[in-house]
Amino acid sequence: MAVCTVHTAQSLNSPSSISHLGFSHQIKHQVFFYRRSSGASSRGSRSLMVQCSAGDTVVIGLAADSGCGKSTFMRRLTSVFGGAAEPPKGGNPDSNTLISDTTTVICLDDYHSLDRTGRKEKGVTALDPRANNFDLMYEQVKAIKEGKAVDKPIYNHVTGLLDPPELIQPPKILVIEGLHPMFDQRVRDLLDFSIYLDISNEVKFAWKIQRDMAERGHSLESIKASIEARKPDFDAYIDPQKQYADAVIEVLPTQLIPDDNEGKVLRVRLIMKEGVKHFKPVYLFDEGSTISWIPCGRKLTCSYPGIKFAYGPESYFGHEVSVLEMDGQFDRLDELIYVESHLSNLSAKFYGEVTQQMLKHSDFPGSNNGTGLFQTIVGLKIRDLYEQIAAEKSSAPLEATKA
Amino acid sequence: MATITGVNLPVVPKGVGLTSEPSSRPLALKASSLSCPWKRPIKVASSRKMRSVVVAAAPDRIEKVAESIKEAEEACAGGATSGECAAAWDEVEELSAAASHAKERKKESDPLETFCKDNPETDECRTYDN
After folding, report:
1. Where does the Phosphoribulokinase/uridine kinase domain lie (chain A) (predicted)?
2. Most-buried pick from A246, A248, A252, A371 (CB within 10 A)?
3. What are the tens digits of pLDDT across the range A212-258?
4. How far apart are CA A323 and CA A284, in angstroms?
5. CA angle, residues A127, A133, A136, in degrees to nearest 5
6. Cα–Cα distance between A280 and A324 in angstroms, integer?
């Protein structure tokens, strides 16, 4: 939302009032009102200035290999802010963009410079930076951040072609989701917060099997070959983005069940960078210490394989990080609320908000394990970050007038 | 290695969605026309025609995936450069993802909900909150 502050240019005898006006995010200009003072004209005219700072879009980057916009993470995130995110009405039905009241999610596949046939001809995967137009990505994200609407191209996943552009209005929160949000240095500098979803190879394989084995044409070998063929490009271009992310959600096979390869029970680690502005990492019991916690016991009964938490400081690619880890599954509501009551710095607005959000989307995949829990927590953290930035921006012009 | 338990690999004929066709159809039908009923000379009400058209989109997507897998296997088997091989499998991945997303979306759509989203004031969609 663009916050407009009204202040008088000169302070005179007559009292002036400072009031806040809220405008929709579509207003991008400065509005000047002039009012002549009623009464003695010797005092001269006072000018009333209304300044709308519309360039306060918060930009979040999400690096994920799982396709665009429809991913569970996006749905959880937009739900934390309220409102359901939907494709733009009346536009291209194959648009990848999702729009809700506060958030707009842009799929970075829209910045492919080569369409499917082009990539096949050149022998280049979508993971390769040569298939993406980073200059356009940077220009448009910068423009949206400054409060200008842009004409963003559409990559049609159904046909594999680049469709005519659609107009994107600057929202309060812009999320750019895709394979390369942190690849280009300039785009990286525009991000207020970045997240990397790191799925380990075993889990990726298990998930792909679940997804593709029901399809005709796929076999175990073809799924394996598909993962293997993409691996070199993935390791070279996508994986290195991990080191730039402010938060990494790492999904690994469970350690609670020996030799488990179904990928149903997961060990999820939330790696949070220390020292990031407006972001305080979640912790368990005592910040900065190393904790290992199994909540199941006398007060809480869990079914097999149970739940295990760990928390501690670590070093990740040369950065100081705090890692919160969960292994296992939630079976009942009271397990979830019990765990939530012991976590600190969640940035929840009320006790039980995390549980409530998880319950709201209990049909989403990952709602009973660390993936859903940490995605929800990151969503709350982003909301907190947004509110802090918005508060900062609105107090800045007030400070200027007081001087 | 992953254990696959209870996974059904359905082997379905091409005309899978059209099982709703009435059984009173004359049995003297050729096998080929059974699989592509929309090509059959139809002297039925237009509603049946519409039903057959709607289903045609779904097998298309699955066909695309199966085709792309075949192409990818050929591209890699023929000793092609690793770039082409990778690009072919990348396409398979993209198409499989699109197919599974489409299936998910179709599963989620409740006709009443989609209608009410656009017309909340109609009698069927009114909600009372007290």
Report:
1. 59-257
2. A246
3. 877 777 888 888 888 888 888 899 999 999 999 999 999 999 999 98
4. 10
5. 140
6. 13
Average model confidence (pLDDT) for chain A? 83
- Report the alpha-carbon distance of residue A318 to residue A315 in Å, rounded: 6
Residues of chain A with CATH 3.40.50.300: 56-196
- Report helix, strand and coil shares of chain B as percent, to nearest 5: 65, 0, 35
Mutate to test the interface with B, among A71, A108, A117, A125 (most CBs of B within 10 A): A125
A365 in contact with B, Cβ within 8 Å? no
Smallest CA–CA distance, residue B103 to chain A, in Å, is 11
Which amino acid appears at position B11 of this protein?
V
pLDDT score at A71:
75
Q: Which two tokens stand for residue A366?
A: 């990952």
Do the beta carbons of residue A87 and residue A99 sit within 8 Å?
yes
Nearest chain A CA: its distance from B39 CA (Å): 24
A216:B62 CB<8 A: yes
Long-range contacts of A21-24 (CB under 8 A, 24+ apart): A21/A50, A23/A52, A23/A54
Q: Measured between alpha carbons, how far is A251 from A25 in angstroms, rounded to an integer?
A: 37
Whether residue B96 and residue A157 make contact (CB cut-off 8 A), yes or no, is no
Which residue has better confidence, B130 or A189?
Answer: A189
**Alpha carbon of A394 to those of A108, A171, A389: distances in Å?**
30, 17, 9
* A56-196 classified as CATH 3.40.50.10170: no
Chains A and B: how many Cβ contacts under 8 Å? 110
* In contact, A160 and A117? CB cutoff 8 Å: yes
Give the chain A residue whose CA is nearest to the CA of B83.
A123
Q: Tell me, what's the pLDDT at A63?
A: 92
Tell me how far apart the 2 most distant CA atoms of chain B are, in Å: 70
- Nearest chain A alpha carbon to B108: A363
* Residue A118, SS3 per DSSP: helix
Interface check for A123 against chain B (CB to CB < 8 A): the answer is yes
Using a CB–CB cutoff of 8 Å, tell me whether B50 touches chain A.
no
SS3 state of residue B9: coil
Hey, is the C-beta of A117 within 8 angstroms of any chain B C-beta?
A: no
Could you tell me the pTM of the whole model? Answer: 0.75
Q: Which amino acid is at A372?
A: G
Token pair of A57 as six digits: 């879009």
